[in-house]
Design brief:
Layout (H helix, E strand, L loop, with lengths): L7 E3 L8 E4 L3 E3 L5 E3 L4 H14 L6 H10 L4 H7 L4 H9 L6 H14 L6 H7 L9 E4 L7 E4 L1
Parallel strand pairs: 2-5
Antiparallel strand pairs: 1-2, 3-4, 5-6
Helix pairs in contact: 1-2, 1-5, 3-4, 5-6
Length: about 150
């Protein structure tokens, strides 16, 4: 598949298909071959989490799994927080059933709280609406010490 963004690296290693790192510096290995190195991975994942938590449409299954795992929670632990059973969380993450909107709002709030961000519950609840497609998450990677979300 051709990358839809010029000078962008599709960062599928995070478990998401729609994260693009624009202007990521290219490094040459000992043999002189260009390689991709992603420094400051925790910073990058913080920006991805922020983009997911604030996106204007509902979370897709992979995005939900990313937020859960980045929060350090098992499916059972997340299920306990949102008052569901672990099988339900598993079904959400496999795309078998849609995520409960109230649970999604709470998951987004937890992610934002972990990141030290404040946001209106009302605003998040409005965003927790399923969408037919997951839009791209574009991150400016030209300065890996300061990743910046360009679009989510």
């Amino acid at each position: 598949m051709t990358e839809p963004f010029e000078n962008a690296y599709r960062y599928t290693e995070c478990g998401l298909d729609n994260v693009f790192l624009r202007d990521l510096p290219v490094v040459k290995d000992k043999a002189g071959e260009e390689t991709v190195t992603i420094p400051y991975i925790n910073q990058l994942h913080r920006v991805i989490r922020l983009g997911l938590a604030l996106k204007d449409t509902g979370l897709d299954p992979k995005e939900l799994r990313f937020l859960r795992t980045e929060s350090g929670l098992t499916q059972a632990e997340l299920a306990e927080v949102v008052n569901k059973d672990a099988q339900t969380v598993g079904r959400w993450e496999r795309g078998e059933t849609p995520v409960d909107r109230s649970a999604e709002t709470l998951i987004r709030l937890m992610a934002l709280e972990d990141l030290g961000e404040e946001v209106s519950v009302r605003d998040l609840a409005i965003k927790s609406v399923p969408s037919a497609t997951a839009g791209p998450h574009i991150i400016d990677a030209s300065n890996p010490r300061d990743y910046r979300l360009l679009a989510a």
